[in-house]
Amino acid sequence: MGNFLPSTDAQRREMMDTVGISFVDELYVDIPADLREKAAEAVLAMPKGVSEFEALEQMKHLAKQNRVFDAIFRGAGAYWHHIPAVVSRVAAKEAFVTAYTPYQPEISQGILQTIFEYQTMLCELTGMDAGNASVYDGATAAAESAAMCRERSRTLTLLAAGLNPESIETVKTYSFGADAAYVIVPNKGGRLDLDALKSALNAGVASLILQSPNYYGVIEDVPAIAQLVHAAGAKLVLSMNPTAMALLASPGESGADVAIGDGQPLGIPLSFGGPYLGFMACKKDMVRKLPGRIVGQTTDAAGRRCFVLTLQAREQHIRREKASSNICSNQALCALTAAAYCSAMGPQGLSEVARACYDNAHYLASELSKIKGFALVNPDAPFFHEFLTQAPANANRMLKALEEKGILGGLPVDGGILWCATERNTKAQIDQLVETLKKAVAV
Amino acid sequence: MTLQNDRKYTSSHEWLLDLGNGSYRVGLSDFAQSSLGDIVFIDLPHPGDKITAEASLGDVESVKAVSEVLSPVTGTVIATNEDLSSAPESINADPYGTWLVEVNNVTAFAELMDVSAYETFCANA
What is the C-alpha radius of gyration for chain B, rounded to an integer number of angstroms? Predict the structure, then answer.
């Protein structure tokens, strides 16, 4: 395949003369010699370039090693949904695929308008006043929300034990860098322990980051938690699956100050883990603290409706070391995909998907719990489309039996197996899963 | 540029007005507001917060930039000017009538200038 040559030998010579070096390698003298040697060996060991045809063959060979399941009963942060054909069609338009970061509004109205529409639909879904143009993923959104809520005398972040483990890990990493503290509030009976929350709340708490439905599928008592958190003067960040928002009370309706989550269920393919998008939206009084890009609507010199990046004052290129966020990018194409999905589905379509998820998951739960060893861990806890069953002693063999039938079973986690059903998990699929498990149990 | 001789000034262009009962008001000078340009947002501490002389007590965002407001005193915030959240531009319109915070329990001061020293300071700025 062709090489990309950004500069000629003569241009390189000129640049080297300007900075006063004779060889390019002199630029790397600060890197320890042993590392430079290793890097040089790695470069020498690289295979020679191949033709486009050969490269495609190699990619196909690699792709064949992927295991694609016919039915997926696993969620835990990434969900198997139907994506209407129009969504991929819109997202694949080359003007969107290749759009550069919209710093110049005069040449970027198309991509700016898609982001503005994404933000608008996000606000309708979350019940919030303002949304940003997205961050990398749900875990990044959690970490950014912790930073967003910190104030001079309130720096402690409380993390609900039911928050996605990846979000907890990412908050930890950001907290280390920001020299900020966090405390994990434990669960009791599958939901946040309200007594533990009460004793954790004090005048130094900036926010509680809560997930509902939580990682184990259980719907938390968000209004009661919001009341406790607000009484202590802290903010409530609610991480929520966007599909669930179409059926359950939205973050805004439940009293959250900030709504976050992973937007993958909104038309983004599973794609082995990414790219997805993290969404963030907040109430009006926190707009100035909302990190990342925000696209606003305005009028140009001729009075025409147009769109621009706005409210960037807290960003690192203006605030330097005082910036409360260092995220200077977004998942524009994934946000556009989510906007296309929401448009294609409409409020009615989204509600129908949510209802089907709920119904299928509840049918799955009732059938699974009839099988020996798969009792529900929290039988009285309300859930949306994910739930925890006990793991029988031979759980791995059970999951293997499912894999042989092209079915990806639940995820083994601490305390059991985490199952999920969406609108794609039809009754026939669920019955097949249950039958396969029953046979495996009988062996 | 206008000045008021009832108050003291810092080299970072905040003013400090002694209210006479142990409490003080803090604001931005006319020089500060005219250098910043149109002010669109101001982030202030909360009543009860402790602030420290020469350390940031909040920040002010104009159409041009974001700048720190440095505290002229060490003390406790007893009130913030709530009107600023909806009308930050009142600092531009009336810098000496628009205060940011009220402070008491004052235990230390930043280096302060009287009106003539501050006038000279601004002339050389």
Answer: 13
Interatomic CA distance for residues A256 and A32, integer angstroms = 50
Domain ranges for chain B: 9-118
CA angle A423, A424, A428 (to 5 degrees): 105
Question: 0.90 cut: is pTM over it?
Answer: no
Mean pLDDT for the stretch of residues A363-374: 96
The verdict on ipTM greater than 0.90 is no
Q: Which of B45, B50, B61 sits opposite A313 (nearest CB)?
A: B61
Q: Rounded CA gap, B50 and B103, in Å?
A: 9
Q: What is the pLDDT of residues B56-65, one digit of tens each?
A: 999 898 887 7
CATH number of A71-81+346-442: 3.90.1150.10
Decide which of 2.40.50.100, 3.30.43.10, 2.40.30.130, 3.40.1160.10 is the CATH code for B9-118: 2.40.50.100
A44-59 confidence digits (pLDDT tens) = 999 888 999 999 999 9
**Closest by Cα among A189, A188, A183, A187 to A208:** A183
pLDDT tens, residue by residue, A117-143: 999 999 999 999 999 999 999 999 999
Instruction: Report how far Cα A401 is from the mean position of its chain's Cα atoms.
Output: 30
Chain A residue numbers touching B46 (CB-CB < 8 A): 151, 153
Q: What is the 8-class DSSP label of residue A128?
A: -
Domain borders along chain A are 71-81+346-442, 85-340
Q: Would you say residue A310 has pLDDT above 70?
A: yes
Chain center to CA of A434? 30
A69, two tokens: 């399941």
User: Are the Cβ atoms of A153 and B49 closer than 8 angstroms?
Assistant: yes
Please, are residues A237 and A150 in contact by the beta-carbon 8 Å criterion?
A: no
Within an 8 Å CB–CB cutoff, is residue A153 touching chain B? yes
Question: Which tokens is A76 given?
Answer: 């835990």
**Contact at CB, B43 and A288, closer than 8 angstroms:** yes
Most B-contacting residue of A150, A151, A152 (CB-CB within 10 A), to test interface: A152
Q: What is the second-level CATH architecture of the domain A85-340? A: 3-Layer(aba) Sandwich (3.40)
Which amino acid makes up residue A242? P
